């Protein structure tokens, strides 16, 4: 079973995947996403993935057969194991937990040649519904405190398969980065009695220079202090603490796809990551945290300065990035 | 002038290099380190770098002429500007500072074909002395609170030039990652009245399974919760809060070079980063923080899960990594 270990100096958690135990010689051969060749995520190859956890099928067909528009399966090489109880233990000064969690893959569409930017809008909306259904289901498991939804697009962004997919990991602890955001947001709320994200949305809407686009329910902005050139944040305009479908998934699908189209066009299909930040299960409804999507195109390298300081160096001011994004013509 | 910006939600600082202001089309062309061709860091090309800040010369020759064994120059494309006063200002809810700082390059040896692993031990020791001299000098500048010394080796680790060099950035604030380590170390000290690093060294020395090597003054260990396979930490065995030459730079050069040789041999010259973590200027002598070097071979990718959670997934348990490191035969 994988193991969760905490670094006592930085407070960082690390997942040690003991089963995968890589030897030194395993690192030379970088596996790039296969171009062409067999793809386990393509329609017709359902038996080659772990069994379906859920799927959308308009034809009422059987699980693990063709006819689906979206499938969710367990990750074949999960970072965490879904079986087992949560045990914490020490090793002298150090803390560890066994690596209990769920690691699932959302196969976003049956067509190998589609991406989130090019698939029908309806399919993007299905992806969002799948996130929602899986979070709602995993919430029932009392071992889990948080579900992190994320996507790696392109080899450089960590994707090991080409066929368009996103992932989620259900965790027995609230991840450190989310915890830090929660703490700051709560401090701000105690001081101002306002949500810091709502305040940012108001300021950016008035100011306009970092706004990329908006619709009735959502706004896409270039954050004031982005880690990466063209980093983009999508937020519901109304206060919503958790990733609920109260907003409107058709509107969210629209602004998400539009943003990805803008990024693809401007930056020539760059690798990117996105992740959803939402409130933890135990406090889903609150006044101070505001769920959002963070999109990070992979354009710069993390080097010694970043590793050692936690600073990021970004050569593109977000005001310029937002202007480029607003002005790019997408089909 | 570059700008330091703080993200109000995560507390992260970002350097926006306004002058370099990259346009979208600048990102396609990845510049790889030049193989062959002209090198500004080679002996004889001294006039093509910014003027020398310091150098080691056994022949008593003039600055910016051949005959040196090590040179320190300003970075030609600095992340921060050394001129100007420190100003903090707001933009509504946001905070910024002008990007005052020093960004220097340590050209570690005149020979283009050497690396820290292959150069004479004496040269490695000179590199450490250069770090020390530059930190001591920059400390006099009251605008600076911290100097981060780091090295990027190899394209994938962020090096843009092939000729062996390390860098330092003097900062007007203590970087967030160091601050977090300081806070945790101080909390531990208040509770235990012992340095957490000293306690870790004692536990690891007794236990041995994560110890890679040691000499009279220093120990190299695989940390209990490493971010990356084969991550290695080098610490002075006696309590030392700051990067002072009290220990013994010849011993430090020896263990550092040996560790890099082990990494090079085991992992076939992987890209890597290292950085030195030390106490901030205003509190250099203390009982709770313990300076150290962190070496991170670049073997895994930072993907959406890591970006979104702050977790790292590491496929190689540090006990196995330490065993491989101990057993590899180096020349």
List SSEs of chain A in N-to-C order: EEEEEEEHEEHHEEEHEEHEH
> On the 0-100 scale, what is the average pLDDT of chain A?
93
* Main beta sheet strand tally, sense and closure of chain A: 10 strands, antiparallel
User: Uncertain spans of chain A, ≥5 residues at pLDDT below 50?
Assistant: none
Largest interface: A-B, 91 and 91 residues
Rg of chain A, Cα atoms, Å: 20 Å
Instruction: Could you tell me the CATH topology label of the largest domain in chain A.
Output: HIT family, subunit A
Major beta sheet, strand line-up of chain A: 3-4-7-9-8-13-14-12-11-10
Number of strands of chain A: 15
Structural class call of chain A reads alpha+beta
Folded structure, characterized:
2 copies of one chain form a homodimer. By secondary structure, chain A is an alpha+beta fold. Chain A has 2 domains: 3-18 and 32-173, HIT family, subunit A; 177-327, HIT family, subunit A (2-Layer Sandwich), CATH 3.30.428. Helices cover 25% and strands 24% of the residues of chain A. Chain A contains 6 helices and 15 strands. In chain A, helix 1 (121-138) packs across helix 4. The longest helix of chain A is centred in the last third of the chain and has 19 residues, at 249-267. The relative contact order of chain A is 0.12. The mean pLDDT of chain A is 93. Strand 15 (312-314) of chain A pairs parallel with strand 2 (13-16) of chain B.
